[in-house]
Amino acid sequence: MKPSNSHAFLIPLLLTAIGALLFWAFWIGVTGYEGERLATLALERVPESGAGNPVTSVLLNFRAYDTLMELAVLLAALLGIWSLGPAAVPYQRAALLLDSLVGWVVPMLIIAGGYLLWVGGHAPGGAFQAGALLGAAGVALALSGRPSAGLPGESRLRVLAALGTLVFVLVGLMLMGLGLGFLTYPPALAKVLILAIETGATLSIGATLAAAFLGGRPRATGAAEP
Predict the structure, then answer these.
(1) Which residues of 8-32 are buried (b: 16+ CB within 10 A; e: fewer)?
(2) Distance of CA 45 to the CA centre of its chain
(3) Nearest alpha-carbon partner for 192 in 55, 60, 41
(4) What's the CA gap between 100 and 95, in Å, rounded?
(5) Degrees, nearest 5: CA angle 53-58-62
(6) Strand runs labelled E in 4-45
(7) How far apart are CA 73 and CA 166, in angstroms?
(8) In this structure, what are the phi and psi dihedrals at residue 53, rounded to the nearest 5 degrees?
(9) CA pair distance 81, 161, nearest whole angstrom
(10) Percent of the chain with pLDDT over 70
(11) pLDDT confidence of residue 201
C-alpha cells in the first residue's frame, strides 16, 4: 500500500524534528553550554527538601509525581502478571546445605534493606534499593523451595503491594487538605512524610518483586511453610 500524500509529508518532517532535537542535545553535551541547569537549582534547594541525600531529595520531593507513577507502574505490572493465572510450580525443597545458607542470607538481606531505607535520607540508599534487597530475600526463599517466597496470603499481599502507592496518594491528599499543593511538603514535616512514604514504598517494592518472580497469582497452600 502506498503512503498517502499527508504521510509522505509528515514522516520526513518528524524525522527532521527528531534529528534536530538529537543534534541540540549532542551540542549541549559537547560544548558544555552554561545555561540554567536543573541540577544546580536542585542542589541549592536540597536543605529545604527534608532529605540530605540529593538523590532522595529528587526522587521524593522535586519529582515526587514521577516516583509515584513508578510505583503505580510496578503495581500495574504485578496485576498484569497475576492476570496470567496461577504461579508456576514451586521449586523442590533445597538440600540441607542450601537451605541453611538461605537461612543465613535472608535475615541479612532484610537487615541490609532496613539499613538502606534509613540511611537513604542522608546518604546513598532509599526505598528502591531497600525494596530490591527485600525482593531478593523473597527470590532466595522461592529458589529454596518455599512456594510463597515468604509472602503473606493473597489478600494481605494485595494490600502490601499497593501500600507504597496508597501512602504516597494519602500524603498528597492530606497536604491538599491542609491548603498546600499535592505532594508539596511543608519544611517542618518534610522529613517525616518522606520517611513514611519511603517505608511504604520499600515494603511494596520488595513484595512486588518477590511476587513477580513467582510468575502468577499466589497458589493457595493448605499447610504453612516450614
Answers:
(1) eeeeeeeeeeeeeeeeeeeeeeeee
(2) 24
(3) 60
(4) 9
(5) 130
(6) none
(7) 13
(8) -80, 125
(9) 13
(10) 92
(11) 95
Q: Which tens digits make up the pLDDT trace of 61-92? A: 888 999 999 999 999 999 999 998 888 888 88
The DSSP secondary-structure symbol of 83 reads T
CA distance 16 to 19: 5
Return phi, psi of residue 7, to 5°: -65, -40
Taking alpha carbons only, the member of 107, 126, 128 closest to residue 117 is 126
Q: Are the C-beta atoms of 117 and 127 separated by less than 8 Å?
A: yes
* Residues 6 or more apart in contact with residue 150 via CB below 8 angstroms: 106, 137, 138, 141, 210, 225
Residue 114: partners with Cβ closer than 8 Å, 6 or more residues away: 130
Cα torsion angle, 51, 63, 138, 163, sign: positive
Average pLDDT over residues 213-217: 90
Mean pLDDT over each residue of the chain, to the nearest integer: 87
Compute φ and ψ for 86, nearest 5 degrees: -65, 160
Please report the pLDDT score of residue 4 as a whole number.
60
Q: What pLDDT, on a 0 to 100 scale, did the predictor assign at position 132? A: 96
- Expressed in angstroms, the distance from the first to the final Cα of the chain is 63
Instruction: Label residue 5 by pLDDT band (50, 70, 90).
Output: low
Q: Where are the alpha helices (DSSP H) in 53-153?
A: 54-57, 64-82, 96-119, 127-143
What's the chain's length in residues?
226
Read off the pLDDT of residues 151-173 as tens digits, 9 standing for 90 and up.
998 899 999 999 999 999 999 99
What is d(CA 79, CA 205) in angstroms, rounded to the nearest whole number? Answer: 14
